[in-house]
Write a structure and sequence with these properties.
mainly alpha; globular; 66% helix
Amino acid sequence: MNTSAATTARTMWALYEPIHAVAYFAPEARAAYENAGLRGFWRGYFAGRAAPLGPVGPEPVVASFFTFAPAMVARALPGVWSLTAPERALELRRAGAAAALTRLLAGHEREVERAAEALVPRAAGLDGSGRVLAAANGALDFPDKPVERLWHAATLLREHRGDGHVAALVTAGLDGCEALVLRSALDVPRTELQPHRGWTDQEWDAAAQRLTDRGLLTPDGAVTEPGRELLRTAETATDQAAERPWRPLTPEQTATLVRLLTPLTTACATALPFPNPIGLPKPTG
């Protein structure tokens, strides 16, 4: 195992994830969908994030997004494609993210250019084997504008990592709801997970009982040491699966990329809620 590359993978996730996530939380991103007739947050979310897959129904999205309740996904898909084609949803996604980043990163234009120049080679040509969302996004062309190139690179890297994370959770024997219940017992409040992923109280409680039966939760819902260890193992596996883009970097190149991304990440984080359903920590830099 390349411990250094795995550590770099985790460090970089905390830096590029806020850049990607403005596409969900920033007002410009939401307005792009709503102005095109996609009323309500979740129509835009599912249309934009699923659009690289084409006009799919709920089943592939339930599988690839993993932690969303099937009933929640089915309320949006495939119905949303009667309101907008996937190609149009991709345009709206890009335009909304670009508008948000242009505002949030005003005054950092040179840093955006340099960060995009450094991040794009890490995201271009990613191996999509076993990684559905990464492969689908990887089939899209890189935009020309630096701010859009930066966002697209961040998106490719986060979906690549996310696909690996899903594989790690499946390997750990967790389904989507169980993964959320266990995480909520550790550090992310249930209020930030259950309602944003659409699970009913009955489904949540049933998942908690399954985890209790496995010895991962106590009867009163606290995470046990085996539960903590399972999550640690899954996170380690996620970092290992996300190593490949960062292996070619020298320590000096890594430090330069961290330096370039840190002020951009800090600015983007002002548009995000903390805590959040992504489990993203608040930047400290």
